[in-house]
Amino acid sequence: MPSQVSSKQILFTRGVPAVEALPNKLLSECMQAVLEGPDAKGILQYGHNGGYLPLRQLISEQYHVSPDQVLVGNGSLHLQDILAGFLVKPGDVVFVEQPSYDRAIKTFRRRGAKVIGIPLDLDGINLTALEESIAEKKPVFLYVIPDFQNPAGVTTSAKKRQALVDLAERYDFWLVEDVPYRTLRYAGESLPLLRDLNSERVVTVSSYSKLISPAIRVGYLVGPLALVKQLTKLAEETILAPVLPTQAAVVEFHRRGFFETNLNNLKQLYAPRLQAVVQAVKTYLPEVPFAEPEGGFFVSITLPQSYHTADLLARAKQAGLLLTDGRDFFADPYAPTVDATQGERFVRLPFCALTPEQLEAGVQRLANLVCK
Amino acid sequence: MPSQVSSKQILFTRGVPAVEALPNKLLSECMQAVLEGPDAKGILQYGHNGGYLPLRQLISEQYHVSPDQVLVGNGSLHLQDILAGFLVKPGDVVFVEQPSYDRAIKTFRRRGAKVIGIPLDLDGINLTALEESIAEKKPVFLYVIPDFQNPAGVTTSAKKRQALVDLAERYDFWLVEDVPYRTLRYAGESLPLLRDLNSERVVTVSSYSKLISPAIRVGYLVGPLALVKQLTKLAEETILAPVLPTQAAVVEFHRRGFFETNLNNLKQLYAPRLQAVVQAVKTYLPEVPFAEPEGGFFVSITLPQSYHTADLLARAKQAGLLLTDGRDFFADPYAPTVDATQGERFVRLPFCALTPEQLEAGVQRLANLVCK
């Protein structure tokens, strides 16, 4: 019943996990086990550069690589920062999907890259636009979020995944695939990772922020051995050593079978929330096309030009609806291929931390603001 | 009895805490308390940019500043990296004591600074050399470790502390004081921090690596409000959010009174080790002058030119003695003020993770290698 929540503020601002789903008791049990277990002294001392070795082993088994191809860092943004710091040289260009994760765009820019946004269609990046941009200037890497993209909710199709690795091979650039939401699939089947199609051209970045807890800050990167070796050296030079107790707790979380049960809990909690937001968009904004995701954290919509979107953020706030500025997700909002108002008309709807009732009320409130 | 350990390898390579002193049981108790306490969900969610607020409050009380003047990061090197990333512009010069902490030198260089080493006397940096270097080119900051310096063990005298802040004020540069060892004083009285003499010119960096555990990676920075605000923004852009469970455990460690008892345990363990290494140097290398520290982790010696130091690292290794290359601590080994062999003749003796017997045997072994 939307009426129950209509007077309260609804936050569509951040892609955070539902607070009730954070497994504090399970983590407490794991922390106790590792801090009183046989390796307790080891996980409090300097060491394990590149990340706690048992965690790197666990990840390496999941990705069928050697543990030396895994670097564990303080969340995936930390690893993207290190990666950009290593790969980007002055004058380099980096491509991102447009829209894309705002913090990644900022990070690549701060590391000196010119960041070019390539339009994202409902089935993945627009290949014609990508080839045109490559012809103009080859990127050092293309950053993609192939599963349940942040912010658009788009999943790159199998055909486009193959096309991306083919292009990366032909034109000699890196693909950086960021897959933090991939495991949170509420329906359908997973498509291959880009690294499954070409492990030599692809760096895979992911984290446990959405699967266990954001504040443990455990993210990881998987890539070719020579690259990971260099990145590990750079990580050592910037943060010296990994945070080991949290990384050891993640290993224990798997050993005790908590990872699977927790993942199932998350899916049971989030799946109806996804359904609720999708249903609300279909009900209250029936003319708005959008990618209907099968997992992840985000549904996003681009409001038609005929809708009343001027000054939307401020009007929404007054109506008790907090939105993120859609323009933040656009690296390149004034490129010739992009309608300059597209960013303003882009609305991200993170659904995991809101109840179905809040989601319905929020979308209804949005519709009231934009439908003339 | 040195004979007990004479056949085993002795590691004088890294300034790490004694593994037996790592308080794993106490930390386990703290972790359990915070992960099952009233803020358990909060410390697993995104938030607390700049560091866990109760920890910033605790530190701010110790330093008599506002919590907004404290930034908590993943160890102090992480904060030095952020600080250098923010302050250093192309062409900038950074001064360090010579010798100084090798990783800090590397970090400042990687952030684009030209790093100049200013000779360190037994009572702190050589002021004449410092003024000459300032006249040549003013640094963006001078990095000093005023208490029980790494690697030299030197403590900057009260007079020189005052001179440093006077120079920083007169010539308009920052002082970055790194004080991770300050609390580990085994004798004598603490001198004022540089920030006690001029809080507007000084950035203080420290950590719990030597006081609780290195692998929790909790370091902090204290500085003027406007600067800390900018650094907090940069931290957020690179690591997004802090590791909260470890930071919350540090707060709990204080609340339960563990910090004081643990500190006393460390002092009781380390004080006889310092005595042992000092006594061994006086016994086996009686002609070698060195700064006799009243705390910290390091005693260091510069072997006279007449000693047999050629190929020392390899010969030491063969004799079961692992040493760090002294040249790594010299930012500027070929400056006109420095004898080019000084780095080669410089030997750091970290004493905390070795028993008094190992320390005596190690110094004796070293003496056998270098005394002709």
Automatic annotation (TrEMBL), chains A, B:
Keyword line: Aminotransferase, Pyridoxal phosphate, Transferase
Cofactor(s) named in the record: pyridoxal 5'-phosphate
Sequence ranges assigned to domain Aminotransferase class I/classII large in this UniProt record: 13-366
Gene3D superfamilies xrefs: Aspartate Aminotransferase, domain 1, Type I PLP-dependent aspartate aminotransferase-like (Major domain)
GO molecular function: pyridoxal phosphate binding; transaminase activity
InterPro entries found in the cross-reference section: Aminotransferase_I/II_large, Class-I_PLP-dep_aminotransf, PyrdxlP-dep_Trfase, PyrdxlP-dep_Trfase_major, PyrdxlP-dep_Trfase_small
Cited Pfam families: Aminotran_1_2
Any single biological process term in GO: alpha-amino acid metabolic process
Tree of life domain: Bacteria
Protein name: Aminotransferase
Native organism taxonomy: Bacteria, Bacillati, Chloroflexota, Ktedonobacteria, Ktedonobacterales
